[in-house]
Design brief:
Helix 3 packs antiparallel against helix 13, helix 7 runs parallel beside helix 8 and helix 16 crosses helix 17. This protein starts with 16 loop residues before the first helix and ends with a helix. By secondary structure, it is an alpha/beta fold. The chain has 2 domains: 171 residues, Aspartate Aminotransferase, domain 1; 236 residues, Aspartate Aminotransferase, domain 2 (3-Layer(aba) Sandwich). It is an enzyme of class 2 (transferase). One of its GO terms (molecular function) is L-alanine:2-oxoglutarate aminotransferase activity.
Length: 487
């Protein structure tokens, strides 16, 4: 006979509270709703006043029609199926430099197979190539032993949070607005997010006096601030830091003993001629600090840039200025996942060492790259202008990255209506926008924003020919919304 005693079922209340606390707005409630609407449209075309859902919520270029870089995919294909390297037809189907690069890479992989585990930091020969690429970019040497290949930048962020956070008394400085993976990871590992507000009035400027103010406030609360996150170019805000500003940030971190976590995954996404990307590694070295004086973690990803290979999950972190004892612990964390995926490792290498002048693929590679980046700049400007033409909306210049983060000044009646529905006002606006137009944006409340202001994040990634229609639909919706709730 079985026991009559009932066994409590697993409930949300019985789960790890740190998991319940973390949120990731980029794939949150609005996106779930959009996916349901998409299913309804497929089952019943014409059920909504739009034909398709336009996912402007996430930096996922290929999902919105961007084509991969031919050279990158040729090398990946040859590495994944090396038996075709020796077939006569391959010479006519693949460029000579992609064939040669695939042979070089396979020689560095254990067993010459992308199905094999690698060293936990990543394949040594690939790390050598990435180090050479960093040196070519910055003009200062890089050590392949400081490089950890990762499944995109996200695992590197989580690894650093896991390493640095011991309890809720440990704080991580994060920009507000911020990429919500940071707030989610800090919550998951039990730390405290210490915000510093970017100055929207100065184009989302990062002010040292704001850092000093927030650091003092945190310390008065007994919080030990351990690291400063800087996202450059900014996500969701799109600003590009000036080198002088970066120097001030480095000095601040050195003075206060903070680890500098430099999220630089949008380093190739610069849309305006007056701005230029400078890595924090380069800035530190140019200040005479070398790679030992400042604990610095630099992040790069194959998901962004002009390549946009989000599904390949490739990236790396360069860790400098850590003691050998600390580096041992970073390596230990890396070993827990065995290694990052090999295709992502290969792609990270190709991003940092693309075709060069004289290579067969160089001209086509350059045309594809420039075509994508120039189109992104045009799309950013079209959306920026369209948003700034809306009543009560202001949008700072999109200097870099893949997003716009306009401020929307909503009527009091709209704010009260949102409150009555127990929604943040910008989330209510985004929901109404979705139902009216099929356009998916992320409410600013998912990223953090200065109290009393409302925003949304919109990607610049829909195909260029669709941007005018998006602006038109958004303009029509916004005018009706403002009229409906006009005070």
């Amino acid at each position: 006979m079985g026991s009559d005693r009932s066994i409590p079922s697993l409930t949300a209340d019985s789960l790890n509270p740190k998991v319940l606390k973390c949120e990731y707005a980029v794939r949150g409630e609005i996106v779930s709703l959009a996916q349901k609407l998409q299913q309804q449209l497929q089952a019943n075309p014409g059920s909504y006043p739009f034909k398709e859902i336009l996912y402007c919520n996430i930096g996922n270029p290929h999902s919105l029609g961007q084509q991969p870089i031919t050279f990158f995919r040729e090398v990946l294909a040859l590495c994944d199926h090396p038996t075709i390297l020796d077939k006569s037809k391959t010479q006519g189907l693949f460029s000579s430099d992609s064939i040669e690069r695939a042979r070089q890479i396979l020689d560095q992989i254990p067993g010459r197979s992308t199905g094999a585990y690698s060293h936990s930091k990543g394949i040594k020969g690939l790390r050598d190539t990435i180090a050479a690429g960093i040196e070519a970019r910055d003009g200062f040497p890089a050590d392949p032993n400081d490089i950890f290949l990762t499944d995109g930048a996200s695992p590197a962020i989580q690894m650093m949070m896991q390493l640095l956070i011991r309890s809720e008394n440990d704080g991580i400085f994060c920009p507000v607005p911020q990429y919500p993976l940071y707030s989610a990871s800090i919550a998951l590992y039990g730390g405290t997010l210490v915000p510093y507000y970017l100055d929207e009035a100065t184009g989302w400027g990062l002010e040292i006096r704001e850092l000093e103010k927030q650091l003092e406030t945190a310390r008065q609360k007994g919080i030990n601030v351990r690291a400063l996150v800087v996202i450059n170019p900014g996500n969701p805000t799109g600003q590009v830091l000036a080198e002088e500003n970066q120097r001030d940030i480095v000095e601040f971190c050195k003075k206060e003993g903070l680890v500098l976590l430099a999220d630089e995954v949008y380093q190739e996404n610069i849309h305006v001629p007056e701005k230029q990307f400078h890595s924090f590694k380069k800035v530190c070295c140019s200040m005479g600090y070398g790679d030992k004086a400042i604990p610095l973690v630099s992040l790069q990803s194959v998901s962004k840039g002009y390549h946009g290979e989000c599904g390949k999950r490739g990236g790396y972190m360069e860790v400098t200025g850590f003691s050998p004892e600390v580096m041992e612990q970073v390596y230990k964390l890396a070993t827990l996942n065995a290694c990052s995926n090999i295709s992502g490792q290969i792609l990270a290498t190709l991003v940092m060492s693309p075709p060069k002048v004289g290579d067969e693929s160089y001209e086509s590679y350059l045309a594809e790259k420039d075509g994508i980046l120039q189109s992104m700049a045009r799309r950013a400007k079209m959306l920026e202008d369209g948003l700034n033409n809306l009543e009560g909306v202001t949008c700072n210049k999109a200097e870099g990255a893949m997003y716009l983060f306009p401020q929307i000044r909503l009527p009091n009646k709209a704010i009260k209506e949102a409150e009555s529905r127990k929604k943040e006002p910008d989330a209510y606006y985004a929901t109404r926008l979705l139902y009216a137009t099929g356009i998916v944006v992320v409410p600013g409340s998912g990223f953090g924003q200065f109290p009393g202001t409302w925003h949304f994040r919109c990607t610049i990634l829909p195909q260029e020919e669709k941007i005018p229609a998006i602006v038109s639909r958004l303009t029509e919706f916004h005018q009706k919304f403002m009229d409906e709730f006009r005070d």
